[in-house]
Write a structure and sequence with these properties.
This protein has about 375 residues and is mostly beta strands. It is built from five helices and 27 strands.
């Protein structure tokens, strides 16, 4: 394309043909193509092209690993699931262009190639969230907020408005406050008024699950002097709540200690620890069908330091083929098949905040040039 005549011939092609060619290129090649001409740059940075490319993305077999160095600083790695082992990977660090270099950052969620990171500066009593796409080297700093140790965060994509939303759930004295940030507007956090806020509680240290345009958390409320546990679902499009019933055994009893939900294939899984030093994994075989809950695995966990976050083993995610990813003794990461019970060592060492999510490279944020967007 260095030859002007060749470039002119490409410019004469209908935009539909150019689009069909470009969406099939790797992201690095597409980024280079933005320098070919103003017309191509405008085409590639169009939100419609970015959405089309996401659906045509080449590598849909990546797993995102949130890991830690010896100095306790985080780094991140992308591994290809179809490789025979996990020795081949791409690693990267958090970008240095951050507003608060003294804060500690950790990634708390992923969606469509975007990483949601949280930084806490305890000396300033503030927290900051950032949406970051390492593929296009862009990040968006969300408006700073008051830091609360009693909060949980959800992050996902609203297919109805083609928008990304971040939800903060903050536990106050007698109620929950819900705050929402929308990437499309880049406005300040807005409060969400809900009837459920005063009557339910969240396990704020546990992760959320995003699937089918909705966020999922394990929540509880006090009924007849007993805690009733359920899955609280928040639809990002309509911004309304609904309930999902948990498995009947042993969920819903006082013996339930802690639980969280995770994405499992095209549905969700429930990971539950009980007081009998057991770790139970349930999967909802058909999303939204409560009768399809099935227990697929029960494991013994350490009875020493039982209230520590480092209980062994610990579920850190699922592979696309359905295998569960575990952090074992010494931080060793492994995957286990539900049917054969075979455990495969991944040759990776994790730490207490390690989690794994399916990942797809995308062009999201490439069209953003203002509202707090940083190119690094």
């Amino acid at each position: 394309m260095s030859d002007n005549n060749e470039l002119i011939q490409w410019e004469l092609l209908p935009s539909e043909i150019v689009t069909n060619i470009l969406v099939r290129l790797p992201i690095k090649s597409i980024i280079i193509c933005t320098s070919v001409s103003k017309a191509w740059k405008s085409l590639i940075q169009n939100p419609t092209f970015i959405s089309t490319h996401l659906h045509h993305s080449h590598n849909k077999n990546l797993l995102f690993f949130n890991l830690c160095l010896e100095n306790q600083e985080e780094f991140y790695a992308l591994h290809n699931e179809i490789e025979p082992d996990f020795t081949q990977h791409t690693s990267f660090d958090y970008p240095s262009h951050v507003p608060d270099p003294d804060a500690k950052f950790r990634v708390v969620g992923t969606c469509n190639g975007l990483l949601l990171s949280l930084s806490n500066n305890l000396t300033m009593d503030t927290s900051r969230l950032c949406l970051w796409n390492p593929s296009v080297r862009k990040l968006v700093n969300l408006p700073p907020t008051h830091f609360s140790s009693n909060e949980c965060i959800g992050f996902g994509f609203d297919p109805k408005t083609n928008d990304y939303k971040v939800v903060r759930v903050i536990k106050l004295m007698e109620r929950l406050d819900f705050q929402i940030y929308s990437l499309s507007t880049g406005d300040q956090w807005r409060m969400l008024k809900v009837d459920l806020a005063p009557i339910c509680a969240f396990c704020h240290h546990e992760p959320h699950a995003f699937i089918n345009g909705a966020l999922h958390w394990v929540a509880s409320r006090l009924t007849d002097n007993e805690f009733l546990y359920f899955i609280l679902v928040f639809d990002l499009g309509d911004e309304v709540f609904r309930h999902e019933i948990l498995p009947p055994e042993p969920i819903g009893h006082t013996g339930m200690m802690s639980a969280f939900v995770s994405v499992y294939k095209d549905s969700i899984a429930l990971i539950q620890k009980d007081y009998n030093c057991k770790l139970h994994i349930w999967v909802m075989k058909e999303y939204g069908v409560e009768s399809s809950w099935t227990k697929v695995l029960s494991l013994n966990i350490s009875n020493q330091g039982f209230f520590d976050l480092e209980d062994i083993p610990r579920v850190i995610g699922f592979r696309r083929n359905g295998e569960v990813l575990l952090k074992l003794d010494g931080g060793q990461l492994a995957s286990q098949d539900f049917e054969s019970k075979e455990i495969k060592d991944l040759g990776i060492i994790g730490y207490k905040n390690t989690f794994v999510d399916p990942y797809v490279e995308s062009l999201v944020l490439l069209d953003k040039a203002s509202n707090g967007v940083v190119t690094y």
